[in-house]
Design a protein that fits this description.
The chain is α/β, with parallel strands linked by helices. It contains 13 helices and 18 strands. Helix 10 (250-260) crosses helix 12. Bound molecules: nicotinamide-adenine-dinucleotide (NAD).
Length: 440
């Protein structure tokens, strides 16, 4: 099962996520005329950013001319690895702003932790670069909104790392749902149960490891002592840097329901409950147990997770179920299948059981689509900033509702909640000086 393969052990314990393995081989490329080349820079080289670069470099017109990371150890290793198969000069940086000053760079990949995405994205757009930004596009709703404005204001080609949008079986699933074969769909349930969502034990603070620019790792996030539990990989379980399972997996999975159901607006209301109920003594701040209900006009979507477990409905530890009057469609990254309702009552026209499997080539296709959109200047990438923003804002709504234990109504025009100052306070992070929330 892909979901089982998707875990790696690090010194910080078992951590997320749909992770890529560092050992990529960057095959030598065919020759492409100089003026057809796309020169790319990577910001955040350890895990997913590195995998994204590998997939982007499978396109012969792409070359990487700069890498940036705040951890010299990672930067050095990645530069050495890239140079083995890439015979051109490579510039390396600690500070992404220096990388953005390189005029020759056409596009950047942002593979840093979530709390950095917004600043790096807006700066990249204003520097005239096209951007592939990892998901969730940001660590707050206000940042998602600022990034959407920046992409449009600076007219950049943007793609978001929600690669399921390029998955063949996800496409056929959405087509099936839109065909109406399932009858009326009034509800979809989405879940993500992963061990890494709860299980790491707290460890003491330590001196900052040699070669790490920790102040630049924290960036706009609050000052806090170095702790490896909050660092590489496992930062996603702490509110200042990430949103736990709700945003880590939620954006991928909720996105499929929003796509399938043609939803482009925020929900009417959101309610949630969550807490560190199963493993209260463990390190993560984000919740190990959470249930969210999103209400739309004639449709309900639910999200649930139980970090620390790996079982779930329909024998799948993560996935989704679209409940139609004629049948239920269940999907994950492996396949989707339809369970017909027993015939009778209103359901005389019975649907047939169907099952379709993934070809697991979505990541290659997703990056190839980004390259092709850069060349054609087509802003409608496989996952636009609007797609990425919508699913990230849904995920953040779920966390805010759980953290405030309240029923939320979000006013999209005013960009605040109705009568809920406690929830409003979680819409936008207070950036640590000298970093400033970008004005777009
Ligand atoms: N699309 C997917 O399936 C998928 C899977 C895994 C991760 N992700 C996303 O990719 C992003 C990175 O996650 P990860 O697992 O690779 O995290 P990671 O902690 O393994 O790697 C992040 C890298 O960014 C570097 N970094 C931190 N601050 C930086 C800065 N200011 N400038 C440059 N580099 C900086 C870190 O040193 C580290 O090397 C996250 O947004 C995550 O949600 C997406």
């Amino acid at each position: 099962m892909t979901n089982r393969r998707n875990f790696i052990k690090t010194s910080a314990g078992i951590v997320a996520a749909s992770m890529v393995m560092p050992a990529y081989s960057f095959a030598p490329k065919r020759q492409v005329a100089a003026n057809d080349r796309i020169r790319v820079g990577l910001i955040g080289c350890r895990n997913m950013g590195w995998g994204d670069l590998a997939d982007m470099l499978l396109n012969p017109e792409v070359e990487c001319i700069a890498l940036c990371d705040v951890d010299t150890n990672i930067l050095g290793n990645r530069a050495a690895e890239l140079k083995k198969s890439h015979d051109r000069s490579l510039q390396i940086f600690h500070d992404y702003r220096r990388l953005l000053e390189i005029k020759d760079i056409d596009a950047v990949i942002i593979g840093s932790p979530d709390h950095w995405h917004c600043l790096q994205f807006v700066d990249a757009c204003s520097a005239g670069k096209d951007v592939y930004v990892e998901k969730p596009i940001a660590n707050s709703i206000a940042e998602c909104e600022a990034m959407t404005r920046a992409a449009k204001r600076y007219k950049r080609i943007v793609s978001v790392g929600q690669q399921q949008r390029s998955g063949d079986h996800w496409h056929s699933m959405v087509k099936y749902i839109k065909s109406g074969m399932l009858g009326r769909i009034a509800r979809a349930d989405v879940w993500g149960n992963f061990r890494y969502g709860a299980l790491s034990k707290a460890v003491p603070n330590e001196p900052v490891p040699e070669g790490v620019d920790y102040d630049m790792w924290l960036g706009p996030a609050p000052l806090s002592p170095f702790n490896k539990q909050r660092f590489h990989g496992s930062w996603r379980m702490f509110w200042s840097y990430g949103g736990g399972l709700m945003t880590d997996w939620g954006v991928h999975l909720l996105d499929m329901v929003l796509w399938g159901m043609n939803i482009s607006r925020m929900p009417r209301r959101v309610t949630a409950i969550g807490g560190k109920f199963a493993y209260p003594e463990n390190a993560p701040e984000t919740f190990d147990t959470q249930q969210v209900i999103y209400e739309l006009d004639d449709f309900i979507m639910t999200w649930s997770h139980t970090g620390g477990t790996e079982t779930g409905p329909y024998g799948r530890n993560y996935g989704m179920a679209f409940k139609g009057t004629k049948g239920t469609l269940v999907a994950d990254r492996e396949n989707w299948e339809v369970f017909p309702e027993p015939s009778g009552g209103d359901n005389v026209e019975k649907v047939e059981p169907v099952k379709e499997f993934s070809d697991h080539k979505e990541r290659h296709r997703h990056l190839a689509d980004f390259v092709s959109c850069i060349k054609s200047r087509n802003p409608i990438t496989a996952c636009t900033i609007d797609h990425g923003s919508l699913s990230a804002r849904y995920a953040h709504l779920g966390n805010i509702a759980a953290r405030t234990q309240s029923m939320l109504v979000y006013d999209e025009d005013a960009q605040m909640f109705v009568n809920n100052p406690e929830a409003d306070a979680l819409l936008k992070p207070n950036y640590r000086s000298p970093w400033q929330f970008p004005v777009v």
